Amino acid sequence: MSRWKPDAAGRLIKAALALFDEHGYEATTVAEIAARAGLTKRTFFRYFADKREVLFGGSEELQELLVTSVAGAPPEAGPFAAVEAGLDAVAAMFTERHPFARTRARIIATNPELQERELIKLESLAEAVAGALRDRGVPDHAATLAAQTGITVFHVAFGRWVAQDDPAALGRLMLESLEELRALTAV
Amino acid sequence: MSRWKPDAAGRLIKAALALFDEHGYEATTVAEIAARAGLTKRTFFRYFADKREVLFGGSEELQELLVTSVAGAPPEAGPFAAVEAGLDAVAAMFTERHPFARTRARIIATNPELQERELIKLESLAEAVAGALRDRGVPDHAATLAAQTGITVFHVAFGRWVAQDDPAALGRLMLESLEELRALTAV
What residues 26-65 of chain A have any CB closer than 8 A to a CB of chain B? Predict the structure, then answer.
């Protein structure tokens, strides 16, 4: 029996990101990730279904926070205000994940399959938000538009956030993107 | 030699859609599609790489029309007005394709792989539109926001268009979605 290893998942993520970054995503194996983390393949598979999941494992948590925050917005909040409440909560969650998010974004940019996976994840997020809005009584059409637009704002601001140095900037960047979107569609 | 068969591509599309609709997309083979169209598999592969391409073959044409129309908008048009010019041109093109689009949407809704392909196609459209806007001198960030939002409006209106009976309604539905988006984000 190996001795107790604290935070195995965190160490596997750190090892995987370092290897993806050094040798490329495709060239890296699960065995190498486990070895770099000082753990076994068996331990890896206790936390992740495959190496791709190291990059996308946080999706459920993000979706749950977003949906809960949209649902929990004040009853008088309109559809888009409810989406903004969700995005605010998400921005706060991401601040401490800036170093991870930056490396992750760099790795995803190198691989079309990962880019597609990211796109599909964003679409699930938009669908989950639309569902949360419908549960608030928002008509289907408005719910879809508000949710899709909110995720567009999130996506664009996220891209700017990982390209700059301030970990706490995501909320401000989302607000800026939203203001810019308003100005763009107003004319 | 078989006798001359006019509009082989059109007949293959018609046969494929009928079979996808009757037996399901996955259960349908290229041999069956060719047979239903009165053509050979060899002829099928002259027009389409695989059966999925029957549903996505029009993408390049759509993208080219969109990009050309965004590029050709009056120089004084703002980013979103240029995107709207592109969407108008696309709406006109789609009117005569309403029956095809309806059946196609029904088939895509049955298959997650096709839904992912559709999503990726929409993302390429948005990227192509953003590129056309950057070529007009629009800054990167505004170009991405305007393009992504324009494609969201297109996507939502398209979903409503295939769910109703008027083939000429796409332009009006896009305008309605855009108005609704303005109202949603204005508060």
Answer: none
